[in-house]
Amino acid sequence: KIVLGIESSCDETGVGIVRLAGDGGMTLLADQVASSVDQHARFGGVVPEVASRAHLEAMVPTMERALDESGLSLSNVDAIAVTCGPGLAGALLVGVSAAKAYAAALDVPLYGVNHLAGHVAADTLQHGPLPPECLALLVSGGHTQLLKVEDLAGKITEVGSTIDDAAGEAYDKVARIIGLPYPGGPPIDKAARQGDPNAIKFPRGLTGPRDPKFDFSFSGLKTAVARWVEAREAEGKPIPVEDVCASFQESVADVLTAKAVRAAKELGIGTLVISGGVAANSRLSELARERCDQAGIELRVPRPRLCTDNGAMIAAVGAHVVAAGVRPSSLELPTDPGLPVDVVHV
Ligand code: ATP
Ligand code: MG
Ligand code: FE
């Protein structure tokens, strides 16, 4: 069966195509993404109206490129999966409307699926099926969550999440403070390689003895960076950008990996998947590798291309849902900007 996935929850228009074999095996046939990130750069964050318009312009060309890449035509498509939440309302609407139109015109079933399940499913396209139980650390511009995944077609539960900023959001805000471009992840990652991670002792959010064990907080860290930079400027001294980046990055990677490994141990789960845009961070994967090896936990991190928003991961959830024999969504499928993570398909 050929499952086509459409993603438009934020600033990436994605169309992916996956072949689902009779034995449940999946092959990635196409993964095309158009991003409007450059149009948001001067605002320092995603502008919803700009993103919606960009999706509208990119949807059909991205679909055509994905079909080209797969060597298939629309008549070969057996099912369509689409992100129906969570995400930006106007952005979601473009993808869901397109998916309904294609599903109706081709007379194939439509499946509204959860974007967050997509981030976890992305890993199965590279590393194969997940074990019966795994822990997922989802770290992106809009989300920072620890999830217990028992079934990609239906059983995902939240173990912990950020109480304020997402990890990627912290990267973007800190980049702005020290004058690096948006999105902040890549330039901070790069600058950090030249810096000393122990130069400045930045706080580790929510790691006190009475703090919630599996929740995260990054707004205090961002404020600490801002205060440090202000104090330095007040003294008339230059800002050691590389050291600030390395020290900030160390705090984020330390907290994320410590809590993920602790959760895996306490819940008795042997596999950790890290996904979302921040999973592309070099220090995060390095420290996760070190700590997982030490704890005897299997670590799975998909390649960066599959970590950031894309349509292939939505096709992958669609394929899991199709394989599980789930009832398709109605053509009235609504979008839900706040869709909870435990609702994998609507
Ligand atoms: P969401 O998936 O939560 O709806 P999103 O579209 O912002 O939101 P992604 O596209 O998965 O999420 O990730 C983008 C985020 O990842 C940005 O905040 C960016 O700064 C961050 N990021 C990208 N590369 C790196 C990196 N190497 N190190 C740290 N952060 C990174
Ligand atoms: Mg994005
Ligand atoms: Fe995402």
Automatic annotation (TrEMBL):
Its main location: cytoplasm. Residues 28-315 form the Gcp-like domain. One of its GO terms (cellular component) is cytoplasm. It holds the Pfam family TsaD. Substrate binds at L138, V139, S140, G141, G142, D172, G185, D189, N281. It catalyses: L-threonylcarbamoyladenylate + adenosine(37) in tRNA = N(6)-L-threonylcarbamoyladenosine(37) in tRNA + AMP + H(+). Its EC number is 2.3.1.234. Keywords: Acyltransferase, Cytoplasm, Iron, Metal-binding, Transferase, tRNA processing. Gene3D superfamilies: 3.30.420.40. The keyword tRNA processing applies. Binds 1 Fe(2+) ion per subunit. It is found in: Cytoplasm. InterPro entries: ATPase_NBD, Gcp-like_dom, KAE1/TsaD, Peptidase_M22_CS, TsaD. It comes from the Bacteria. Fe cation binds at H115, H119, D309. One of its GO terms (molecular function) is iron ion binding. GO terms for biological process: tRNA threonylcarbamoyladenosine modification. Its cofactor is Fe(2+). Belongs to the KAE1 / TsaD family. Required for the formation of a threonylcarbamoyl group on adenosine at position 37 (t(6)A37) in tRNAs that read codons beginning with adenine. Is involved in the transfer of the threonylcarbamoyl moiety of threonylcarbamoyl-AMP (TC-AMP) to the N6 group of A37, together with TsaE and TsaB. TsaD likely plays a direct catalytic role in this reaction. This is tRNA N6-adenosine threonylcarbamoyltransferase. It comes from Kibdelosporangium phytohabitans. The lineage of its organism: Bacteria, Bacillati, Actinomycetota, Actinomycetes, Pseudonocardiales.
